[in-house]
C-alpha cells in the first residue's frame, strides 16, 4: 500500500524500585473477565518486570483525517489545552514496553512488545507512581509501508529541547518545528526497519511464517538496501544508550 507519513514524539522513562504495586488490583478481583481488568493486569506485570527503560509515544494525527473526536473545530490534543498544536492536529499517546530480545542463533530478532493506549489524565504522574522517572525525549519522522504482514518503517530521529525545571515533557505546544531540531545522526541517514507483529508469539507456525516473510522481504530489497539483524544487546532496554556527540 502507499506509504503513511509518521510523526512521533518519544518520551523515555527509567525505572526505579516501583512503589504501590500491591495497591493495584490484579486479575483476581471482582470483574476479572472484563477487558479493563485484563489490560490492568497486563500493565501491572510489565511495570513490575526487570525492564528499566520504557517509552510514552505520542503520534501526531491530523484531526481532519479521523472521526474519533467531535468538537467545535478548535485545535486540541486529547482535550488538554496545554498541548494544543497547529494545523488541526492532536497527539495520541501509547505506553510502549519492549522486552529483551530472545537469545540464540536465529535468522531474526524476536521479543515481546506491548503497546497500551493512554486516555486523558496525568500520564507522567501515573508512570511516576509505578516507579518510572522521565529521562529524555526525541522526535521521529518517517514513512510506514505495509506489504502483507510486514511493516517497513523508514525514519530518522531528531533531538528535542531539554525539559526545563517544572516543565511537563508532555506539553509540546511550544516545541520548535522538527526541521529546526538537530538530527541525532549527523550523516543525515535514514533507518529502515522491517518487522512483523505476531498476536501469539508462542505459536511456532506463526513465528516460522513471519520469519519466511521477513527473509523474502530482505531478498526483495537486496538490490537497493541491505537489511541486517541488529545486535541483540543494542536492543536491550535494561542498559542506557549514550548519544555520542560528533
UniProtKB/TrEMBL annotation:
Keywords: Activator, Nucleus, Transcription, Transcription regulation. It holds the Pfam family Med18. Its main location: nucleus. InterPro entries: Mediator_Med18 (IPR019095). It is found in: Nucleus. Component of the Mediator complex, a coactivator involved in the regulated transcription of nearly all RNA polymerase II-dependent genes. Mediator functions as a bridge to convey information from gene-specific regulatory proteins to the basal RNA polymerase II transcription machinery. Mediator is recruited to promoters by direct interactions with regulatory proteins and serves as a scaffold for the assembly of a functional preinitiation complex with RNA polymerase II and the general transcription factors. Component of the Mediator complex. Belongs to the Mediator complex subunit 18 family. This is Mediator of RNA polymerase II transcription subunit 18. It comes from Lithohypha guttulata.
